[in-house]
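Below is one protein, fold included:
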Amino acid sequence: MLAKARNELPEDSSKGERFEVPKVKGHVQGNKTIISNFPQIATTLGRKLELILKYIEKQLATKSRIEGNFVIFNTKLSAAKINARVQQFTDSFVICKECGKPDTKIKKDTGIYYLRCQACGAKYTIKAKI
């Protein structure tokens, strides 16, 4: 009966991954790069837009500003470079190192920032500068 039940089960069509970081959408206009979906990325990651932007500015050594739903970088940047930095941010400040889930919160305790996982309860310090 167990073999029959296994044969009747549908194929697992999902990847098993419920969390996917959206890719940036934007264009280059003159010597500026305009990203149109940055607020959606921040919402997906569960972090403030300004925090993610500050990290990317430091990593790419450029300045940016927020105008409405757009983020404007003051230099020409490829989408691949920005996507790589968003992925670095996700790995460092969003994904739990213990269970691999994105259900984390950044907490500050006695001047030190911690990443606290809501799923498994893990707590560890953030070594990278924000």
Summary: The chain has four helices and seven strands. The chain has two domains: 21-94, 98-130. The helical segments are 2-8, 38-45, 49-60, 79-93.
